Amino acid sequence: MFSNPAKMVALIRMSLRSLMLHKLRSLLTILGLVVGVASVVIMLAVAEGAGQEAQRNIEALGIRNVIVRSVKPSGGEQEKERNGVYSYGLTYLDMRRLNETLSMVDRIAPLREFRYEARYLDRSLEARLVGIEPDYQEANNLEMMIGRFIDSNDSNNQANVCVLGAEVAEKLFVYDSPIGKTVQIANKQMFRVVGVTKEKLSSAGIGSSLSAQDYNRDVYIPLSTDRNRMGELLVYQQQGTESYERLELSQLTLQVTETNLVKAAASAAESLLGSTHSKKDFEVTIPLDLLEQVKAQQRIFNFILGSIAAISLLVGGIGIMNIMLATVSERTGEIGIRRALGATKGDITMQFLVETTVLATSGAFLGALVGIVVPPLLSFFTGRETALTWWGPMIAVLVAMSTGLIFGIYPARRAAMLDPIEALRRL
Questions:
Q1: CB 309 within 8 Å of CB 36
Q2: I need a labelling partner for 174 at 20 to 30 A (CA). Which of 21, 113, 265, 290 fits?
Q3: pLDDT per residue as tens digits for the range 318-352
Q4: Which residues 6+ apart lie within 8 Å of 261 measured at CB?
C-alpha cells in the first residue's frame, strides 16, 4: 500500500470527500483533540513561564552567593541586655570573622535595611532605606536612569547622598528632576539625590529567609552614612511604652570563588556563626540550592499539568472511535460494493485508517495553532509570564495523532471484517 503513492493519494482524496459530506460532524469529532492539544500547549507554556520567572529571581541572587540574613528570634528567646536593649542579628564582628576565616569567600557585601517615610515638600511615601556598599549595584543588576550610583568616595566620606528607586522618584518628583534635590527620611535626616535607578521587576519571596523585594521603592545610602546618621539603636513605641533594639546588619552576601564550593562555604559560615551566637538569630540561604529545587519542582509540575491535559486527548480519541464506528455502520453497503469489486480487507482497513488519520491530524494541528496563539494573549491581558517551548506543541501533536490512529484501528478492522454478502444486503 505505502509502495504505491498514487493509490495512497487516491485514498486520501476519498477520505477527504467522505469527511466533507458531514462537515459539522467532522468538526465536532476533532473538537476534543483541538481542546486537548491546545490545553497541553497552553498549560505547559504557563508552567514554563512561571518556572523561568522563579529561576531568574534566584539567579539574580547569584549562584555563587551565600546569603545570611538577620532574623528576630521568637519571644521566648528574646533576652535584654542590662541597659534594657535587646540585641540580635548579624554584626560587623561577624563580617570580619567570616572574611578572615573563610578562604573560599572572595567578597562579603553587607546591607542594612529599614522602612521609613521618604518625603519631598508635601509628597511622601513609605520606602525601604537601604545602607549599602558601592558593589551592591553590580550584585543586584541595577541600571541607572539618570545620575550615578553610590561610589567609594561617598562611603569613605560618609556622604549624605542617596539614590532613589524608580517609583520613589516618580512619586516624590512628579515633574521635577530629582538630581540635586534633598529628600527627608524618617522626618529627621536629609539626603541629597545623586541618581535614580531604572524600573526593575519586583522579586518574589524566595526561601524561608528571603522576602519579596520591590527595588523601585528603595532609597540607597552609603552603609557608613547609615551607621553614622541612623544609628544602630531602634526605638519602638507602643501603648505609651518604649522598647529598644540593636541591629547592626540586616544581611551579608558571601560571594564564593567557585560554584562547587558554595555549599561548603554555607556550611562553614553557619557553623562559625552558630558558635558565636547564643540564639538562632540568623538564617543561611543558598540560591544554588533553591535553583536546583525550582528546576526539580518545575519538571514535576510540567508532568502533572501535561498528564491532566492529556486526559482531553484521551477523550478526543474516544470520540473519534465512536464516530468512526457509527460511520462503519452507515457505510456498510459501500463497503460491500467495494469488496464485490475486488477491494481487499487491507484496502478497507487502510481507507478507514486514512480517514481517522486525517481527523486526528486536523485536530492536532488546529489545537497546536490555538495553543501557540493563546499564551501571548494571556501574558498581554493578565501580565503573567508565559513561555512557549518547541517541544510542547510537537509532543502534543504527536500524541494527538497517535491517539487518533490507535483509536481508529478497531473501527477500521471492524469494517474490513464485514462479510461482503451481508454488507450488500443492507443496500
A1: yes
A2: 113
A3: 877 888 787 777 777 777 777 777 777 777 777 77
A4: 104
